[in-house]
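Record type: ASSEMBLY
Status: queued
Input:
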Amino acid sequence: MVEALYWIGCGLTLLGALLTVVGAAGVLRFPDVYTRIHAASITDTGGATLLLLGLGLMSGLQFATLKLVIVWAFIMLTSPAAAHALANAAYASGLTPWIGEFRIIKGATPDAKKTGNAS
Amino acid sequence: MLEAAAAAILIAMVLMLVRALIGPTSYDRILAANSFGTKTVLFIGLIGFLFGRPDFLDIAIVYALINFVTTIALMKFFRYRSLQAPLASAGAESRDG
Amino acid sequence: MSGPLAMLDVGAIINGVLLVMLVVLMCAIARVRNLLTAILLMGVYSLVMAVWLTVMDAADVAFTEAVVGAGVSTVVLLGAILLTRSETAAISWKAMIAPGLAVLVVGGLLVFAAQDLPDFGDPASPANAYVGKLYLEMTGGDIGAANVVTAVLGSYRGFDTLGETTVIFAAGLGVALMLGFGERAMSDRERGRMPVNVSAGEDHVVLRVMAKLLIPLIVLYAFYVQFHGDLGPGGGFQAGVIMAVAVILHALVFGLDATMHAVRPGVARAIAALGVLVYAGVGIANIVHGGTFLNYDYLFPPGVEARLPDAAHHNWGQHFGIMAIEAGVLLTVAATMITVFYGFAGRSAEAVAVVGGDDTHGQNP
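Status: finished
Output:
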């Protein structure tokens, strides 16, 4: 039983780390601030949950498990709130989302004021 | 196992650093700094378990809190050019002193 | 887990990646002209340093670097550039030749001299073989603290720490004298000159609720770090800065005048002085009870310590002495950081508040 928990923990940790890498790749590849915020905040919080859960399962029940729960709670509280505040501030300052047709071309950056209703 | 996860988080940190350097708008950079901070929290937690020193989780907890404050400060500075004005509440025109 | 050989390679790779990140960050910080970006990147630089210090197993230093470098330092620097322009002037490359050569020469000399440094973690190096080894051996018997760093900082080298605390207090005084005590923001508000609500029309309910939730948790965590400094990474300095971060969060979300009504600037200055007084007072108490300055074995009057429970196995004098001076350090550091923040943020009432975005968010640096 303990062995099974250890290997499940390993799997969850790797999955969480993989999710984090995928999110970082998304932040690099997405065309617009809002999509980047979406990628970063979702994968950060989800990846952190999986990773901390995996670490907790790997190490068994000890005092450090309580600290892992606290880290998880703080990340769950602050990461979505910061993403919300950032998206709110970006929208209120005039950056409109790049809606409509987009292609990921090298060197193309979204025009900050264009609403782009091509489709 | 844990080394692979640590290496993956390190790669994610490097990718986020690239976004912090090239992001065309400042909101991209603030997002990258916030995300970099969260990944740092995870990395410190991981290497704490990797080195057999769960005391490092204290550093992770404190940075999870401080990351939020720094992001709010950067955002408030960039958006409102002021650190000392209150953030608005709905319907309130001014604060009673 | 894997054997030590695999861990060594991974360590070298981690060190290499972190070093490359630091170099790239430094080049970017030197190159960008927009100061907000520079401050952001300096915060990220401090984070990478904190990670590297953690990899090198220096937990207390990593703690302080993460909290001070990536936290308070960023906020205070933001307050500083509110008082000046937010872009540096352009420098022609011809003006950079002489300083560039000087940097290359000095850097080359440093790299050349670094070849002679002992290997990392070498037990036979002079730093680890003489005094370091003595501290590790004698801390258990003399002081009984589990965290040797706190024992060295608080007891063996307590006089240095008193000097550090006084320096922090003096720095806070210097900022307060030059930038004002922040009461100017309060009086401007009463005269109706301060922009009251730059974000009128927007609702920041999520941030306000989050701040109300997090501020008491941050203060509680500061106390945890303070009292846990004997057993793990932590101590007075880190706890003081974390406490100041809680006050800064309150000021960011609820406005500086609300924070100033809660933590008055005069009270903050008085607490800063009180911290140094507590620290030096402990030293004087030792002299009064028959010992030398800051020798905690003489903290209690003779005879009192023998009546404390388990006196033969516990160094109660050391225990309470370190607790008292850490409390002094907490008071001074927290109050000084708050005073510095009040000074910078309070002066920015004169800075123009731009509502609705500004001209820099579309530009490349």
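Annotation: Residues 351-365 of chain C have pLDDT under 50 and may be disordered.
Annotation: The first helix of chain C runs from residue 4 to 31.
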